Amino acid sequence: MTPEVVMSIGQRALEMAVLLSAPMLLAALVIGLLVGVFQAATQINEMTLSFIPKLLGMAAALMIAGPWMLKELVGYTRLLIQSIPSLIG
């Protein structure tokens, strides 16, 4: 197996990790920002205030983007398994 092939597999795996984590991370980022602005405006400095909205937002993001994420992961896994013969020989 050549180093270029290993690098390609590793690069594609990292791209998939970023792509699959993006919807939930973006949801947490946006909700955290909105809660932070709300806390700054009302001067409520409660650390646990953002936990429940983030949890609900990430659950909603998972429900909305979950089928797409699963389709991408299955496609990548299928491609990886199909490329095994070319990796061996």
Structure, explained:
The protein has 89 residues and is mostly helical. Helices cover 87% and strands 0% of the residues. The protein is built from 3 helices and no strands. The longest helix has 40 residues.
- Binned, the helix content reads over 70%
Structural class designation = mainly alpha
Strand content: under 5%
Low-confidence stretches: none
Q: Based on Cα principal axes, name the global outline.
A: elongated
Q: How do the helices and strands follow one another from N- to C-terminus? A: HHH
Could you describe the largest sheet, including whether it forms a barrel? none
State Rg.
Answer: 19 Å
Give me the number of helical elements: 3
Termini separation comes to 8 Å
- Total beta strand runs: 0
User: Mean pLDDT across all residues, rounded?
Assistant: 89
Summarize the structure.
The chain is mostly helical and 89 residues long.
What brief labels describe this structure?
87% helix, elongated, 0% strand, mainly alpha, 89 residues
SSE layout and pairing:
Blueprint: H1 3-42, H2 51-82, H3 84-88
